[in-house]
C-alpha cells in the first residue's frame, strides 16, 4: 500500500491532480486485486505478458506520447507547466511509480508477496489506467478525437489484461487459494 500511495502522491507532485487520479486507478486498483488474489504467482507464469507489456509501454506508448505531445496536452488540462526530466518531482515519480516494476522478475521469481503485489499494480496500471487516454478527450472543449497516447493503448491494454488473466490462473500442480 505504501508503494501505491507514494506513486499516487509523486504523480500529483509532478503532474497534478488529474494524473494522480489516473495513477490511483492502477496503483490502488492493483492493490485491491492483490488483496483478492495475494497468492504468489511464479514468474514463469507472467514472464511473457510482463515483458511484452513493458516493451509495448516503453517502445510504443512512451514514444507515441512523446511524439504526439502527451505531456503538453495533460498539463494543458491540469493547468500546470510541463516538468523537465531532471525535476525532483519527476525523478521521485519515476523512482516510486516505475522503478519498483523493474523488480517484478526478481521478486516474483522468488515467490515473494511483494512481487505479486507489484505485478498486480503494473498490469492494472497498464490495462486500466492507460484507458484514460480514451476518457481524456471528453475533458477537452471540442469534438471527441485523438488524444496523445491513444493509439498504442490498443496494443498495451490487452497485453496487460493477458497478464492479469495469467495472474488469476492456477499454477501447474497448484490449486488457487491453497
Molecular structure report:
There is one protein chain. This protein has 178 residues and is mainly α. It has one domain. 69% of the residues lie in helices and 0% in strands. It is built from nine helices and no strands. It has helices spanning 2-15, 17-36, 43-68, 70-78, 88-97, 104-109, 113-127, 132-135, 150-168. The chain starts with a helix and ends in a 10-residue tail after the last helix. 34% of the residues are buried.
Number of strands: 0
Number of H/I helices:
9
**Whole-number mean pLDDT:** 90
**Strand fraction:** under 5%
Topology summary:
Layout lengths: L1 H14 L1 H20 L6 H26 L1 H9 L9 H10 L6 H6 L3 H15 L4 H4 L14 H19 L10
Amino acid at each position: 500500500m505504501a508503494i501505491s500511495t507514494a506513486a499516487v502522491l509523486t504523480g500529483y507532485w509532478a503532474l497534478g491532480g488529474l494524473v494522480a487520479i489516473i495513477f490511483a486507478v492502477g496503483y490502488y486498483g492493483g492493490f485491491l486485486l492483490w488483496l483478492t488474489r495475494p497468492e504468489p504467482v511464479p514468474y514463469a507464469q507472467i514472464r511473457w505478458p510482463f515483458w511484452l507489456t513493458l516493451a509495448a509501454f516503453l517502445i510504443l506508448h512512451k514514444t507515441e506520447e512523446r511524439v504526439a505531445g502527451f505531456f503538453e496536452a495533460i498539463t494543458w488540462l491540469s493547468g500546470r507547466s510541463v516538468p523537465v526530466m531532471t525535476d525532483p518531482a519527476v525523478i521521485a515519480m519515476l523512482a516510486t511509480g516505475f522503478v519498483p516494476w523493474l523488480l517484478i522478475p526478481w521478486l516474483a521469481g522468488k515467490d515473494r508477496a511483494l512481487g505479486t503485489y507489484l505485478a498486480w499494480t503494473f498490469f492494472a496500471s497498464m490495462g486500466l489506467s492507460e484507458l484514460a487516454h480514451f476518457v481524456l478527450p471528453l475533458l477537452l472543449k471540442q469534438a471527441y478525437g485523438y488524444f496523445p497516447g491513444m493509439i498504442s493503448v490498443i496494443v498495451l491494454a490487452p497485453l496487460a489484461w493477458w497478464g492479469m488473466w495469467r495472474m488469476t490462473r492456477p499454477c501447474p500442480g497448484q490449486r488457487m487459494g491453497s
